[in-house]
Structures are given as C-alpha cells and as structure tokens.
Amino acid sequence: MKILIVEDEELAAARLSQLLLELEPQAVIDGPLDTVTATIAHLQKVTDYDLLLLDIQLADGKSFSIFE
Fold first, then answer.
1. How many CB atoms lie within 10 A of CB 62?
2. Which residue from 39, 41, 37 is spatially nearest to 52, judged by alpha carbons?
C-alpha cells in the first residue's frame, strides 16, 4: 500500500506514520508534505497512491483546494 501524508504539524505526521507502519509494516509512506502548493506539485508527478491522508487546514490554505 502506498500512502501520502499531508500534514503541517511535524509531531502529528510522525505519529501518524508510526501508527500506519504498526498496522501495515509493508506500507510505503511518502511525505509529510506541509502545504497545498507542495502537494499539488507532488501529485502532478506521482499519482499512484492508494491512500491520501490530509490535514484540512494547511499553512497556505485548506487541503480541499488541492482537488480544484
């Protein structure tokens, strides 16, 4: 399973990664990305994720705008 974490709080992203790897040791986790801009740029290059975990409020806006 390939997972992308979009989270602007470092400790929260680290804990989320830890929990995911405990549940799914074979998971490939990318990120964390911390802005809408960085996430859009990344997803234009890499699109084969099975799961995206997004913080709603990021440093430069709401993560919902990533999909506009």
1. 12
2. 39
| pLDDT tens string 9-68 | 999 999 999 999 999 999 999 999 999 999 999 999 999 999 999 999 999 999 999 999
Q: Report residue 10 as tokens.
A: 């470092």
Give the C-alpha distances (Å, rounded to integers) separating 5 from 46, 48, 60. Answer: 13, 14, 16
Of all helices (H) and strands (E), which one includes residue 18? Answer: helix 10-23
Predicted model pTM:
0.93
Tokens representing 66?
């990533």
